[in-house]
């Protein structure tokens, strides 16, 4: 069974997702130590803060080669974030929310591996044409920003696998080893997990946010801001405010105004579960504990093995 361990220096073909306000140097280092790709989420970081987190991750891991940076391609500091990461020795990038054409060939020329996040087979083909080494195909069950197409992981993965020749990594709604086994049966060569890693000891999510994850059920999240930037949110007061505005036909500017005031930081990092924006995936309903990353990865591998015939084991 082919998996992304032949592309990246990993023990297991799993990725701890890049997540704004959640995946800093501490979480990435713990993931790298546990044998998987540890991703620093640069989306919420100014270049100086990103530099701090890369140094922290390198200090706390025995495996700096398993560190990566996720750079959403929609911010003005994108080029600076990428250059800084290259200068600090990062050679794996997960790019998202933008065109893979812009930076992929330059990054590859610098000796880096580039994995782009897509939400449809059409975007997967564009990423392959742009020279990406692999793609992450993310279904709309996922936490955080989502594709407008609303394609679920179960239907997305086989369609993407049949469209491209580069490795496909599945994301969206994967919370335990059974789901990892399932996406591998669909042809994925690895899995990226976000929501599951929010509720770990090493994540920088506020403890109120972690607690909300373990108190969630299957209906605790919903896709919001479809007309602006679709994002799956925890259903708190902030979500209700967004929804009310949307139902009244709010303009992009009105929604932007509500989102201002650092709502994402307020919710996910500072733990304001009423007024803050909380990004989280549908699989939160399955999560009932806050383990260390090491214990979680061991459990995921064991569950995956119990769910598959031996030829499919990692
Ligand atoms: C709190 C949170 C923040 C996220 N931030 C980002 C981000 O900055 N960039 C990105 O590409 N994806 C982001 N995502 C999506 C994850 O990288 C990942 O693909 C997704 O969480 C996978 O689905 P799951 O949540 O069902 O595991 C975020 C997800 C969560 C839950």
Quick tags:
314 residues, alpha/beta, TIM Barrel, 3-stranded antiparallel beta sheet, binds flavin mononucleotide
How is this structure best described in words?
The protein has 314 residues and is α/β, with parallel strands linked by helices. The chain has an eight-stranded parallel beta barrel with strand order 1-2-3-4-5-6-8-9, surrounded by six helices. The termini are close together. The chain has two domains: 4-205 and 286-312, Aldolase class I (TIM Barrel), CATH 3.20.20; 209-283, no CATH class. The radius of gyration is 18 Å and the shape is globular. Helices cover 39% and strands 15% of the residues. The chain is built from 13 helices and eleven strands. Residues 17-20, 22, 41, 43, 70, 72, 96, 117, 138, 141-144, 171-174, 192-196, 198, 268, 279-281, 283 line the site of flavin mononucleotide.
Q: Return residue spans where pLDDT drops below 50 for at least 5 consecutive residues.
A: none
CATH superfamily of the largest domain: Aldolase class I
Q: Rough shape?
A: globular
Number of alpha- plus pi-helical segments = 13
Strand order of the largest sheet: 1-2-3-4-5-6-8-9
Return the CATH architecture of the largest domain: Alpha-Beta Barrel
CATH topology of the largest domain: TIM Barrel
Class by SSE composition = alpha/beta
Radius of gyration computed on alpha carbons:
18 Å
> What distance separates the N and C termini?
8 Å
Q: In CATH's first tier, which class of the largest domain applies?
A: Alpha Beta
| Helix content percent band | 25-40%
Q: How many discrete structural domains?
A: 2
The tally of beta strands, per DSSP, is: 11
Question: In this structure, how is the largest beta sheet organized?
Answer: 8 strands, parallel, barrel
Average pLDDT across residues?
A: 95
Bound molecules: flavin mononucleotide
The H/E string reads EHEHEHEHEHEEHEHEHHEEHHHH
């Amino acid at each position: 069974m082919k998996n992304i361990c032949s592309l990246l220096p990993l023990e297991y073909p799993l990725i701890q997702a890049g997540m704004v306000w959640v995946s800093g140097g501490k979480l990435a280092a713990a993931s790298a130590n546990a044998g998987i790709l540890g991703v620093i989420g640069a989306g919420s970081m100014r270049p100086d803060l990103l530099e701090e987190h890369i140094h922290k991750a390198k200090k706390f891991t025995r495996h700096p080669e398993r560190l990566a940076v996720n750079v959403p391609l929609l911010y003005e500091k994108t080029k600076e974030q990428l250059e800084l990461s290259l200068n600090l020795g990062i050679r794996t990038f997960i790019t998202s929310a933008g065109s893979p054409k812009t930076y992929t060939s330059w990054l590859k020329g610098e000796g880096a591996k580039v994995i782009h996040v897509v939400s449809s087979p059409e975007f997967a083909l564009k990423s392959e044409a742009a020279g990406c080494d692999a793609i992450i195909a993310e279904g709309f069950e996922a936490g955080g920003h989502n594709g407008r197409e609303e394609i679920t992981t179960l239907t997305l993965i086989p369609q993407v696998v049949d469209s491209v020749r580069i490795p496909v990594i599945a994301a969206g709604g994967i919370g335990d080893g059974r789901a990892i086994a399932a996406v591998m049966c669909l042809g994925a060569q690895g899995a990226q997990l976000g929501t599951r890693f929010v509720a770990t000891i090493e994540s920088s999510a506020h403890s109120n946010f972690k607690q909300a994850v373990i108190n969630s059920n299957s209906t605790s999240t919903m896709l919001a801001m479809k007309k602006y930037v679709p994002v799956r949110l925890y259903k708190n007061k902030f979500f209700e405010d967004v929804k009310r505005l949307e139902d009244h036909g709010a303009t992009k500017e009105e929604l932007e105004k509500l989102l201002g005031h650092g709502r994402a930081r307020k919710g996910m990092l500072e733990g304001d579960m009423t007024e803050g924006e909380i990004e989280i995936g549908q699989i939160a309903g399955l999560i009932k504990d806050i383990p260390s990353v090491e214990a979680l990865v061991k459990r995921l591998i064991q569950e995956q093995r119990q769910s598959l015939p031996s030829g499919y084991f990692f």
